[in-house]
């Protein structure tokens, strides 16, 4: 009714007043047009999606390397989305992510977090993804990966990338000792490691097994072989002294038999790599992607002879294989202003076809069905072994504020048990007591 009355009033105004009214209407129309233009610009800006990530993840999505191409190019074009990439190294990336989630609002729409930074405090700053992922079957993502980034029964991050450890072994050295296949239990692996140890024909020491004893994570496979952990997924300290004692006893046995390098507690990745190249190390526990490095014809004396397999568990364990893993997950900050588009992006990262394409670009797929795709099988010589390892992958310790201190105490006691400064039983008890203290329990 008001709109009709205005039209009638305008019809009977004197000419001079019509002119004034016209000017006012023109001004109002101008303001409306300006507002519409701003709204249109805002709509275009809403199609910008800002991502805080690591360069390796960006490369696996954009196709900087590999054969998968630009994985999300079609989605971007179809939805008129511009991806604004912000990349950083691991520590500054997580510092920035934590700062952004502490603000009243953030310009970061999607972030990426490494499992070792996914504390319960950190997870509280992210949007639950359960509703976002409704209707998307992610049952081929290992439950352990999902548990690690869940809080109060809600999924706070979507795992999208892993790096998992494996057992690399020199087939030529095994053949020299009449061994044509790896054992299927950790107990059998210990005996093989002892058999492979000794001296080569020229007197060079050869060690059956090598682990990175310079950092806590380098030895976690041995713990997991017996089902030992330091905490559960939410950071509650373990009380299973027996499992940890068994792991320490096995480590001490390997060391005493000369199956581990005498300086393994100071032997890092570079030294292990040199040992594998020169045939001084018969088996090494390292991530799967070291396969290409170990078989580098320009550097290795055994190029083409180093194969890789999933690490076997001890007898009686629920999974035949175990593996230490690190996992990157996508998160949506709870204070993000662009959650709907961010959700759509996260869903794209879990799309089975996109996962395969990212794998072809060098990503470690957390969806284990990706390893069954013929394109992945053709591209990755160890696809089957890596799938086995991922299915058995576990986290030995969940992140918490004093995790660095806890890992230092683990490393100290592990080394003491290995070289005989403590009994396995005492070292295990001391380890778990130190973990509980560091965790505030």
Automatic annotation (TrEMBL):
Belongs to the bacterial solute-binding protein 1 family. The keyword Nucleotidyltransferase does not apply. Its main location: periplasm. GO terms for cellular component: periplasmic space. It comes from Devosia ginsengisoli. It comes from the Bacteria. PANTHER family: ARABINOSE-BINDING PROTEIN-RELATED, DIACETYLCHITOBIOSE BINDING PROTEIN DASA. Pfam families: SBP_bac_1 (PF01547). This is Extracellular solute-binding protein.
């Amino acid at each position: 009714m008001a709109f009709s009355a205005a039209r009638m009033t305008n019809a009977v105004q004197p000419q001079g007043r019509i002119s004034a009214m016209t000017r006012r209407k023109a001004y109002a129309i101008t303001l409306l047009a300006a507002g519409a233009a701003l709204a249109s610009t805002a709509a275009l800006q809403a199609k910008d999606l800002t991502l805080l990530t690591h360069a390796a993840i960006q490369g696996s999505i954009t196709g900087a390397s590999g054969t998968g191409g630009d994985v999300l190019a079609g989605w971007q074009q179809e939805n008129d989305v511009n991806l604004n990439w912000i990349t950083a190294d691991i520590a500054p990336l997580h510092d920035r992510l934590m700062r952004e989630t502490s603000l009243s609002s953030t310009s970061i729409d999607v972030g990426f977090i490494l499992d070792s930074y996914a504390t319960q405090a950190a997870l509280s700053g992210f949007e639950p993804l359960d509703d976002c992922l409704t209707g998307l079957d992610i049952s081929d993502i290992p439950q352990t990966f999902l548990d690690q980034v869940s809080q109060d029964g809600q999924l706070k991050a979507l795992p999208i990338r892993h790096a998992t450890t494996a057992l690399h072994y020199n087939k030529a050295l095994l053949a020299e000792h009449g061994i044509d296949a790896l054992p299927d239990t950790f107990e059998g692996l210990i005996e093989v490691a002892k058999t492979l140890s000794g001296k080569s024909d020229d007197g060079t020491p050869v060690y059956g097994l090598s682990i990175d004893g310079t950092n806590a994570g380098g030895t976690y496979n041995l713990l997991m072989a017996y089902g030992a952990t330091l905490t559960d997924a939410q950071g509650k300290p373990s009380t299973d002294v027996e499992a940890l004692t068994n792991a320490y006893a096995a480590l001490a046995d390997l060391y005493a038999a000369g199956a581990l390098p005498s300086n393994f507690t100071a032997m890092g990745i570079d030294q292990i790599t040199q040992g594998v190249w020169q045939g001084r190390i018969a088996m090494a526990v390292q991530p799967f992607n070291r396969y290409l490095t170990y078989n580098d014809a320009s550097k290795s004396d055994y190029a083409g002879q180093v194969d890789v397999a999933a690490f076997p568990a001890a007898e009686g364990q629920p999974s035949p294989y175990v593996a230490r893993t690190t996992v990157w997950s996508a998160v949506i900050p709870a204070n993000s202003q662009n959650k709907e588009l961010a959700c759509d992006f996260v869903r794209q990262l879990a799309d089975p076809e996109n996962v395969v394409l990212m794998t072809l670009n060098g990503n470690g797929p957390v969806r284990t069905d990706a390893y069954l795709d013929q394109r992945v099988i053709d591209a990755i010589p160890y696809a089957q072994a890596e799938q086995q390892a991922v299915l058995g992958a576990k986290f030995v310790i969940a992140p918490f504020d004093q995790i660095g201190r806890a890992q230092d105490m683990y490393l100290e006691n592990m080394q003491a048990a290995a070289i005989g400064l403590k009994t396995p039983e005492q070292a295990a008890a001391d380890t778990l007591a130190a973990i509980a203290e560091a965790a505030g329990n």
